[in-house]
Structure formats: C-alpha cells, structure tokens
Amino acid sequence: MNNIKLDFPILDKKIRDKAITYLDSAASTQKPKQVINSISEFLENSYENVHRGMNSLSIDATDLYEKSRDVAKNFINSNSTNEIIFTRGATDSINIIANSLAEHLKEGDKIVVTELEHHSNYLPWMNLCKKLGLELKIIPISKDGILSEDDIINNCDDSTKVLSLTHMSNVTGQILDIKKIKKSINKDTYVAVDGCQSIAHLKN
Ligand SMILES: Cc1ncc(COP(=O)(O)O)c(C=O)c1O
Question: Which domain holds residue 76?
Fold first, then answer.
C-alpha cells in the first residue's frame, strides 16, 4: 500500500500539518504520477490536432491517440478498436446513448433502470421518457439497500426496449451479474451498462 501511495504526488501534501487520507475515490480518483507525466509529456511534446493535419506533430498526435484506443480495447477485452469511443465521461456517454436510441423508440415503449443508479443513469432516461412519452420503470432496492437481479429480469417484458443499469454500485458496492441478466431477458432489448466502478475494481 505504501508503495502504491508513492505513485500519487498529491498524497505528499499536508493539510493543517496532517497527511491526507483520501477516501473519496468512488467519486473522483486522484491521478498517479504515470498519468500526470504522460499528459504533461503529450502537451509539452506532441500536442496538435488529431486526425485533422498533415504536419509531423499532428501525425504523431494522431498515432498516439489511436494507440490509446488499442490500450483501452485490450483493457476491457473488447473485440475491436471500432468499439472504443472517447467521451468526456459517463454522464456524457449515457446522454449520447439515450439521444442516439431516441429514433428507435416510440410512445408506449418501456425503459428500465434501477434505484441503485448514479444520477447520470437516471436523468438522460427520465428526459427521454418525458420527451417521447415512454414508460420509465425504476426497480427499487430493498430496505437493506439490495437490488434483486430477479426483479430486474421480471420487469423486463416485451415492451422493454432499453435496460440501463450499473455493473457495480458507487454507493453500496453491489455487483450485478450482467451476463445472467442479459441472458434472461428479450434479446432485442438494448442493454447499457454503467461500468464506472467495475472497470477499476473487477477483472471481467
Ligand atoms: C457509477 C457511476 N456512474 C456514473 C458516474 C458519473 O461519471 P462522470 O463524472 O464521468 O460523468 C459516476 C461518478 O462517480 C459513477 O460512480
């Protein structure tokens, strides 16, 4: 643990003469020096328009940008770099997905989310449902904060066009068996998975 801490320069900082104990990584993760150095190195030596210029800097920047797509692809075991899309974050991504699905949805269709979602996985769907006259079904958690996978499966019927759910809750840490859920519902239902927390904590 002490070795890992050495990678995070901000943890050297003292506040009111006390060392920092940082416990808010679920909300915002501090950056290790490898990330800071690599961003700084890129800005100092390689920054240019990506995919928009024919000069050497632009060609190098494009090359680095595309190589990072490959790194992301391998990290999440994706089949192709064509599946890797860079966005500004999860909220941006979910808004893009919701807005892109709008043309495939019509009044009366149902969207299912869960009570365990981060706000960024409610609001885009809530807005879409209001705009298009869709039904939004929010699967509740138990009084102990547990979400039942069976409840999710049983609430996905033929009118359910989208199921959008977290893989690992940022509040309770509950992990959902996405493969099981996906196998148990109509195969035409679009399934959007918020992997913000699981990407850092799970192997697959
Ligand atoms: C589970 C989960 N989903 C979505 C978000 C929102 O992510 P972003 O800040 O990238 O929009 C967070 C942020 O903490 C999160 O923990």
Answer: 2-83
